Amino acid sequence: MQKTDVKPAEGKIGVMVVGCGAVATTFMTGVLMARKGLAKPIGSMTQYDKIRIGKGENKKYVHYSEIVSIADLNDIVFGTWDVYPANAFESAVNADVLKAKDIMPVEDELKQIVPMKAAFDKDFAKRLEGTNVKDCKNRWDMVEQLRADIRNFKSEKKCNRIVVLWAASTEVYVPINMDVHDTLEHLEAAMRANDCKNIAPSMCYAYAALAEGAPFIMGAPNTTLDIPAMWEMAEKTKMPIVGKDFKTGQTLVKSGFAPIIGTRCLGLNGWFSTNILGNRDGLVLDEPANFRTKEVSKLSTLETILKAENQPDLYKDYYHKVRINYYPPRNDEKEAWDNIDIFGWMGYPMQIKINFLCRDSILAAPVCLDLVLLSDLAMRAGKYGTQRFLSFFLKAPMHDYTQGEEAVNHLYQQHTMLKNALREMGGYEADEELD
Asked: Beta strands 161-166 and 13-18: pairing type?
């Protein structure tokens, strides 16, 4: 098979992160520590996962970087925007995720990462009281200022390529409005008209990134990229986009455990999920309008794995509920509880309880790294538009709902999609079936 024309990962890659809170600073600190040999990037697929290439006597298992050209951690340059002016070192200390011994060795590098003024609208995150905010005449001016930030950062840091990553808070829920979000022309008109109801600040970041030739990654469940107008923008600029909302704790478990129930042909009466979380994300999600955005994202996973139309005896009318509770004492150490009511032979009921005491930012940081490196790979491979092979990392994978397409949320199917895409880009046969 002929190798895909993937441009080599040469030169510096600028990673511009929207938000300089717990997730962002844990990500930045981990990368800086790893490249000094002082920490290991555990949890990162691009750094650890091995996949099979070839069959039979030609079969071997290799790292991603042995198949395709992946950017080196040493070539990453970080930039950020945030509503608070504290530099990345101060923010990492304030986030209270990492111990001093894991921050101090890279203190100087973190202090040099100073947030640019954020494009912010308090109506979309009422619990935040930031002062490091751009003065924008309208949404179009917001886009233009962000584009200038990207150009200036790329020039000043001498970066060959840029990737923009949203690691900021969840915005209030923005319903998809096909009078505004259907075409790029309508979206741009709404930005120029300062339509602050239908145009969220995250849309301005996404538009600015794509316009400047940078892939955009949405790490929150915001309505941003999942509108036809942004799909059109990605096609026009020939930039890759993915889904939304980092798949870290509870949804990762759900996307991996639900297939066990389905494969074993057990029935489901109900699945109740609740979380307690005390960091800035928990504070923002304590606002009902912001939680609604997260709820829509988290609820979508189960319904695409255990389908009533495929197995009505097993999955008709099960009850699925998701809750997130703000609990400050827990800070970044999120606790997720799942109660699963199943039934088996002759309809007899059983229960499964899952209690996941996880660290939100520790799980999110490697996902940030993988999405950045693989989005950069997709761009260098000439792939643009929706990158379904990156669904593995997201709670809400991108899909064309206007054509009735369903997202793939089954964890093992997502992993197959990821492996096949890497094989193809490396010139090998995409030889696993997606059942």
From this structure: parallel
Contact 298, 395 (CB under 8 A): yes
Q: Is 292 exposed, middle or buried (0-12, 13-18, 19+ CB in 10 A)?
A: middle
Q: Which structure tokens are listed for 372?
A: 């950045």
Amino acid at the residue 186: H
Distance between CA atoms of residues 197 and 155, nearest Å: 34
Q: Is residue 426 classed as helix, strand or coil in its secondary structure?
A: coil
The 10 Å CB-count burial string (b at 16+, else e) for 371-380 is bbbbbbbbbb
pTM for the model = 0.93
Cα separation, 165 vs 150, whole angstroms: 12
Tens-level pLDDT at each residue, the chain (435 residues) = 345 689 999 999 999 999 999 999 999 999 999 999 999 999 999 999 999 999 999 999 999 999 999 999 999 999 999 999 999 999 999 999 999 999 999 999 999 999 999 999 999 988 888 899 999 999 999 999 999 999 999 999 999 999 999 999 899 999 999 999 999 999 999 999 999 999 999 999 999 999 999 999 999 999 999 999 999 999 999 999 998 999 998 899 999 999 999 999 999 999 999 988 887 777 776 777 676 766 666 667 899 999 999 999 999 999 999 998 888 998 888 899 999 999 999 999 999 999 999 999 999 999 999 999 999 999 999 999 999 999 999 999 988 999 989 889 999 999 999 999 999 999 999 999 887
Tokens (6 digits) for 34:
């790893």
φ, ψ at 395 (rounded to 5°): -70, -35
Under 8 Å between Cβ of 392 and 398: no
For residue 213 the two structure tokens come to 């030739």
Place of tokens 């304590």: 286
How is residue 3 written in tokens?
Answer: 């190798």
